[in-house]
Amino acid sequence: MAHPEIKEPSAGHPITIEPTEGRVQVRINGELVAETTAALELREATLPAVQYIPISDVVQDRLTRTDTSTYCPFKGNASYYSVTTSAGDTVDDVIWTYEQPYPAVEKIAGHVAFYPNKADISILAQ
Q1: 33 three-class SS
Q2: For the chain, domain boundaries
């Protein structure tokens, strides 16, 4: 089996990870499913910034791991979760996580990100 290509961040494809200033809240169908003051903001090249939230700050009993997986040559293998609200609505593959991210982005280990087209992500001043 061929090993996947691993790429390092560079001037042509920069990646930065910094603590988010403020409180990050994530809602699905109006229901609060994650809240933290320990989020990390990942900026990658020209892509929109992504908030990575400690998985411990996500409502655990609403998560279901799925079989979906993807690969990023800069970050590694991603796993996915669906979230079911208290009303019983399930949003499939709304969360992704790099459980063993590559060394250049190791700060995001133990964190998850939400797709902004499937969840409402807000950053509130402290």
Answers
A1: strand
A2: 15-124
17-52 pLDDT, tens per residue?
999 999 999 999 999 999 999 999 999 999 999 999
pLDDT attached to residue 2: 57
Given a contact cutoff of 8 angstroms between Cβ atoms, the answer to whether 34 and 25 are in contact is: yes
Containing 69, the helix (H) or strand (E) segment is: strand 63-72
Tell me the pLDDT band of 54, cut-offs 50, 70 and 90: very high
Determine the number of helices (DSSP H) and then strands (DSSP E) in the chain: 0, 10
Cα dist from 105 to 27, 34, 44, 48, 124, whole Å: 26, 22, 11, 17, 25
Q: What is the largest CA-CA distance in the chain?
A: 49
Instruction: Write down the pLDDT at residue 3.
Output: 59
- Please tell me the CATH code under which domain 15-124 is placed: 2.170.150.40
Q: What type of residue is 35?
A: E
Q: Distance between CA atoms of 6 and 15, rounded to whole angstroms?
A: 14
